């Protein structure tokens, strides 16, 4: 498979809107996913940050609280010793003051020592409260009533911790560590206490998260806030109204850590809180407002969205442009293919006529000089035809519409054919042609034999073309399941640097040197495509001025000998007769019917005709036809519709062969016909060879009698008396005989017949048009002038046909003035043509015997009787007999039309026409 076809296959076939939706969707997903990932990363970062802050704050708080307890431990031991020793209050005061001064010296702590004190119950001077800083303590201070003292007693020798929200000395929360001292017998000697300001710890906690945009919170075991950035909250229970942390109260007391708890901060910001309980029962927490953290995510989301929208728009724009360009190029390609197919069809038709006539001419008695001219025409026509075929092949390959048609075929026969062809061609050029094969070549292969033949013919042809002396050799071998064809020559060879361009379309090497050699540079490009489609390849090895070797390698797919289509079925060279076959031709144009009928007559086939799809449906049900030729474009019911109805008539009509007749044989038409119930199609003007092939394919084999093609024309109705009519027509400027002849595949007798028919009907049809113009019946005029246009084109009267076309267009747009103005001149030209044609169809040939009225009325009633018995053939014969007589212009036309109606089994129309005959 070539890369081109591979690309064609994988080419996205999705419509544009799906591609656009996909693009937008992809970008949307990308933006959403990136945001989700980023949010997750920020969340993790936030969480980790919180944990780190809580860890370090916790460590600091614990260390801040351990030192005062150690100090108190020492103080309690020393004061106990002093009391037991009998020291008085002054001694103890001095001691506490000294220690306190020492403690004040070292002020690096968060927990600031504020005082050291004791209540000693067994001093010589009686119980005394001694304070390290204040010598004379106020009388109203009763230590035994204070909570620190009571807590110390309750702690029974252990250190008690007392939180005081608002101290009587310092208007801020303080923490007092206190402990009782006892003598050896366990008698209480008093209690000592150390007071520290916890504002420092609180500030430290609050500030610990400020660097991260948040703040810290410290809550006592009984849920009293003693560190919070809003100092108004300090000392309050978090359950109190107006404290933003109240929502956390229950969660905190449950003892579990709080992680990422969404809440509104005291500043009213959207925040997340992290809390944990410290070993001493306090709750330490941090609050982070979300915005600063998620700001980067929001920014990123914004940037990504903008980028996404921009990229999606750019991509969509590119897609739209690419789609538009692809549509344009597809359309151009379709136009190109249609144009090439049309053009090659149009050229091939006359080319085939030229070749066919050249062949016929070659059978005539000609001088040697004339024969050599014929040879030249034949060679040139064939080379022109091969160029046209190449262009057609290339256009099909390029538009990806070319497919191989594999069949079982006789490989030996194919090779024999190539050998005999090139032995002859090489010998003619004075070259030796050698053939060699190694191994047992398979008898039958499965593949596209026509395309393989084309490849081998092209490469062997090149070998002969580009070799002046020496030999051309074809060697065939089998290697690892592949067929290998080596075509070597001793010719001019190819330069190494040219080899890479060899397979490019329209590339020819050494144009100067090869000027005399005809070629287009298409052959090898087409060969390469074909061979690649077969799953093979072509290799080249060449030595400049010594010769070249082209190696074609294709997989050898063995075929089934029994399934080989017999040579008899290819039919091209072998014409046929089918005297027992009956064919129906359906066309709304009488001239086309005549041409088709005349052509089928050459095959001795019985032909019935129908003017419309409806008539055809009717006839098909009343008669048995072996084959139907159905025109495509017909008024009222076109061919496609008619076939649709016929196929539904019953099982016997499902397989009835119906071939489309079409003037528009463009690419794609075949598929359209096949998918609409037709069995095939044949293009107009009909070519004999093509018709021969269709007949052989579709007529029942038992009705086919073999016949040499050359003798087909022998049964012509065209006699010698009309032999000179072509040269006589040459005098008539209005008619281009070449075009006229090409319309009937070059058959002069047919041309003669349709011209005679045209001449016979011209006057009546011209008058009918005049009548329509005079009565301003523009609708009828349009129909008549449309028919006249196509008839004029069929006989080759092109200028008149164009004039008719203009009148038709004007009539269709109701331009009565134009028609009335221009018709007289057109009528004049038709009359002139009629007169000129009288010279070709002499009066005596068209002159009729004077008619007798009795005879006429007798025959008419017989024809009507026959029609009543549904004996259309007799009715037709009787009416045709009448045509040999002259019953006056008007009657003559009515009789002619009635005969045609009988011929088409249109009995109602025939009866109506005959009733109008004036007796
Ligand atoms: P064409 O023969 O119609 O020009 P091809 O595509 O068949 O086109 O060949 C392309 C070109 O390759 C030829 O024009 C010729 O220059 C060169 N070439 C092909 N075959 C041979 C050969 N056997 N020896 C030398 N040159 C060759």
Secondary-structure map:
Elements: H1 3-10, H2 16-85, H3 89-105, E1 112-120, E2 128-131, H4 147-155, E3 160-164, E4 174-182, E5 188-197, H5 199-208, E6 215-219, E7 225-227, H6 249-253, E8 258-264, E9 270-277, E10 283-289, H7 290-362, H8 368-398, E11 407-410, H9 411-428, E12 432-437, E13 444-447, H10 449-465, E14 471-479, E15 482-489, H11 523-533, E16 537-543, E17 547-555, E18 576-577, E19 582-586, H12 590-602, E20 606-610, H13 613-622, E21 627-631, H14 639-647, H15 651-654, E22 658-662, H16 669-675, E23 680-683, H17 688-698, E24 705-706, H18 725-730, H19 737-743, H20 748-774, H21 778-795, H22 798-812, H23 816-838, H24 843-846, E25 849-850, H25 853-868, H26 872-882, E26 885-886, H27 889-903, H28 907-915
Parallel strand pairs: 12-14, 19-20, 19-21, 21-22, 22-23, 25-26
Antiparallel strand pairs: 1-2, 1-5, 3-4, 4-5, 6-7, 6-10, 8-9, 9-10, 11-13, 14-15, 15-17, 16-17, 18-24
Bound molecules: adenosine-5'-diphosphate (ADP).
Describe the fold and architecture.
With 919 residues, the protein is of the alpha+beta class. The protein has 28 helices and 26 strands. β8 and β9 form a beta hairpin. It starts with a helix and ends with a helix. 33% of the residues are buried. Bound molecules: adenosine-5'-diphosphate.
